[in-house]
Amino acid sequence: MKQFEFVVQDKEGIHARPAGILVNAIKGCPSKIEIENKGKKVDGKRLMAVMSLGVKCGETIIVTVDGDSEDADSETIATVLKENL
């Protein structure tokens, strides 16, 4: 299992467009990926669940990746977050 933190930089936080990009990237990963904010964890492959976290600009999310390809999947998700949020 790998875990990393990311501080959201998008002034709107995690809203529909970047959430959709993030979820689509996560769906392409075979690992189980969870996103946590303020103690609430959700399945990263579910758009409405990710948006329900209500992540605002400047907040830190914790991404947990568990699976056989967790190293590659962690890098993929980290890149998507940096480019879109």
Give the topology, please.
Layout (H helix, E strand, L loop, with lengths): L1 E6 L8 H12 L4 E6 L2 E4 L3 H6 L7 E7 L3 H15 L1
Antiparallel strand pairs: 1-4, 2-3, 2-4
Helix pairs in contact: 1-3
Organism: Candidatus Epulonipiscium fishelsonii
Protein name: PTS galactitol transporter subunit IIC
Tell me what the structure shows.
The protein has 85 residues and is an alpha+beta fold. The chain has a single domain (2-84), classed as 2-Layer Sandwich (Histidine-containing Protein, Chain: A), CATH 3.30.1340. The chain has helices at 16-27, 47-52, 70-84; strands spanning 2-7, 32-37, 40-43, 60-66. Strands 1-4-2-3 form a four-stranded antiparallel sheet, with helices on one face. Strand 2 (32-37) and strand 3 (40-43) form a beta hairpin. Helix 1 runs antiparallel to helix 3 (70-84). The radius of gyration is 11 Å and the shape is globular. The termini are far apart. The model has no long low-confidence stretch (mean pLDDT 96).
